[in-house]
Design the sequence.
C-alpha cells in the first residue's frame, strides 16, 4: 500500500536538521508515496509560534523544503490561522486518501516516557491514548535524547539521527548576534537577515537587499527586445537552476503580475525592468548598462506586499479559493445593476447597495482599476486595502482605504434578475452567489527597486 508521510511541526525557523530529515525521507519514497510538510498554526501551548507573522513562517518553510524534489508543503493551518491537532490531521488525510497508509513523522523527544504512559503524546495531545495506540509513527532519533525501545509506540518505524540542531538554538543565536551559518541554509539565513527576524526589533519602512545577485531571469516572450535583454542577462549570470536569490522580470506591469502569481512561493525579491507603458511596479533602466549595473554591488529596497485570499461560491454551489496580487471584484452580468449585500469583518454595512462594480485592491493594485474608479493611489507595501465602487447608487457610499486586516464579503441579492459575476486579477470566475476577500496570511511578494527609483514621484505622475 502506498504511504503518505506527514511531517508536522512549528519549524520556527527550519534548520539544516529539519532539511536533512526531509531529504532523507524524500530519497526513500516509493513511486506512489507522498511526503507532506505541515507547519502548524498558532499554538496556545507554544508561544514561540506567535513570535513571527504567519507569512514569514510560510516563507521560511517554502525556502527550506520547497526545492526538495517530491516534497509538498501544506499551508492550510497558517492560512486559516488555526492549530489542527494530529488526531484531526490523521482523520482528514485518511478521508482524502483512503488507499494510502498515513505515517506521522515525529521526534524521539515526543515519545520519551511512553513505556509508563508519560510521553508528550499521552500527556498533552488530543485523544493521546488513542493516537498512541492507532497511529503509525516514523520516529527520528535525536542526538542527546534518550529513548529506550519500551518507550516506542505500538506502530512505529525508526529513522536514525541526522544532523544536530534545534530551532530554539537558532533563535537564541540570532538574538545574541551570533552566526547561524552552521545551523540553517543560506536561503533561510538571507531571508532572516533581510527581514530582521528573531531580533526583537520591529522593521519600519522597506527592507534592504545587499546580496550578490543570482537572478532567475524571466522575460516577456511576446516582445523581441525583452527576449534579447533576458538572454543577455541569463548568459551574463548563468545562475544554476534552483539557486536564484531574486527574480528579474522584464516586461510591463501585466507580465509582472503574471510572474508574481506563478512564482511567489520562491520567496525572493522580484526586480522588475520596465518594458511596458507605465511600469509602476518595475524599474526604469538603461539597456546598455543593465548587465554592469546588476553585476555591481547593489543595495535594493524591497517592499513586501500581501496577496489577497479570495473565496467564492458559484451559483451551482461549488466553492473555490484563489489568490490575487492586484485586485478582485464583482460586477453585473446583465444590463441591470447588481444589488449587493456588503459585509466588513462579518458586520453588514450595506443591505443592499446598487452598483455596476464593487472592487477590492491591494496597495500594489491601487494604481490600476481601483484608481480609475476613484480610489486612492498607494505605495507598494502600504498596509491598506482599497474598497471602491462604480456607478454606486447610495448617498452613504464613498471609496475609501481600509485597514489591511479587513475582511470584505459581497453577497448577490435578487440573483435571478440581477446576476453577479466575479473576477480575480482579471481571471473570470463566472456567476457567483458570494465572494469573500481578505489579506492572505501566507502569500506575499517582495518588490525590489533600485535606490534611485522614486515611488512617490511615480504615483504623482499618474
Sequence:
Amino acid at each position: 500500500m502506498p504511504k503518505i508521510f506527514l511531517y508536522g511541526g512549528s519549524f520556527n525557523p527550519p534548520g539544516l536538521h529539519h532539511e536533512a530529515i526531509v531529504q532523507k525521507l524524500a530519497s526513500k519514497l516509493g513511486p506512489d508515496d507522498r511526503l507532506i510538510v505541515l507547519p502548524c498554526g498558532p499554538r496556545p501551548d507554544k508561544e514561540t509560534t506567535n513570535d513571527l507573522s504567519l507569512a514569514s513562517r510560510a516563507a521560511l518553510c517554502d525556502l527550506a523544503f520547497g526545492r526538495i524534489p517530491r516534497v509538498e508543503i501544506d499551508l492550510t493551518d497558517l492560512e486559516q490561522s488555526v492549530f489542527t491537532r494530529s488526531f484531526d490531521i490523521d482523520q482528514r488525510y485518511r478521508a482524502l486518501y483512503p488507499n494510502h497508509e498515513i505515517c506521522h513523522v515525529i521526534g524521539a523527544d515526543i515519545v520519551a516516557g511512553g513505556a509508563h504512559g508519560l510521553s508528550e503524546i499521552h500527556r498533552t495531545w488530543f485523544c493521546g491514548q488513542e493516537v498512541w495506540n492507532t497511529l503509525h509513527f516514523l520516529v527520528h532519533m535525536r542526538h542527546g535524547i534518550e529513548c529506550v525501545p519500551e518507550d516506542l509506540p505500538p506502530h512505529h518505524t525508526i529513522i536514525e539521527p541526522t544532523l544536530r540542531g534545534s530551532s530554539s538554538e537558532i533563535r537564541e543565536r540570532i538574538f545574541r548576534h551570533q552566526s547561524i551559518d552552521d545551523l540553517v541554509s543560506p536561503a533561510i539565513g538571507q531571508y532572516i537577515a533581510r527581514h530582521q527576524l528573531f531580533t526583537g526589533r520591529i522593521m519600519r519602512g522597506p527592507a534592504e537587499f545587499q546580496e550578490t545577485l543570482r537572478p532567475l531571469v524571466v522575460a516577456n516572450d511576446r516582445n523581441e527586445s525583452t527576449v534579447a535583454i533576458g538572454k543577455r542577462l541569463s548568459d551574463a549570470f548563468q545562475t544554476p537552476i534552483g539557486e536564484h536569490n531574486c527574480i528579474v522580470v522584464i516586461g510591463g506591469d501585466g507580465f509582472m503580475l503574471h510572474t508574481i502569481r506563478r512564482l511567489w512561493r520562491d520567496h525572493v525579491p522580484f526586480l522588475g525592468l520596465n518594458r511596458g507603458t507605465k511600469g509602476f511596479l518595475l524599474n526604469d533602466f538603461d539597456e546598455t548598462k543593465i548587465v554592469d549595473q546588476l553585476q555591481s554591488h547593489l543595495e535594493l529596497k524591497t517592499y513586501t506586499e500581501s496577496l489577497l485570499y479570495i473565496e467564492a461560491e458559484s451559483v451551482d454551489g461549488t466553492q473555490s479559493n484563489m489568490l490575487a496580487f492586484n485586485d478582485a471584484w464583482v460586477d453585473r452580468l446583465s444590463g441591470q445593476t447588481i444589488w449587493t449585500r456588503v459585509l466588513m469583518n462579518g458586520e453588514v454595512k450595506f443591505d443592499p447597495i446598487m452598483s455596476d462594480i464593487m472592487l477590492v485592491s491591494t496597495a500594489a493594485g491601487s494604481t490600476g482599476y481601483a484608481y480609475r474608479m476613484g480610489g486612492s493611489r498607494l505605495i507598494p507595501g502600504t498596509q491598506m486595502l482599497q474598497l471602491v465602487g462604480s456607478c454606486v447608487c447610495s448617498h452613504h457610499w464613498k471609496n475609501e482605504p481600509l485597514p489591511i486586516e479587513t475582511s470584505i464579503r459581497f453577497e448577490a441579492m435578487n440573483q435571478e434578475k440581477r446576476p453577479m459575476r466575479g473576477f480575480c486579477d482579471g481571471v473570470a470566475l463566472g456567476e457567483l452567489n458570494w465572494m469573500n476577500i481578505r489579506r492572505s496570511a501566507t502569500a506575499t511578494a517582495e518588490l525590489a527597486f533600485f535606490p534611485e527609483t522614486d515611488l512617490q514621484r511615480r504615483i504623482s505622475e499618474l
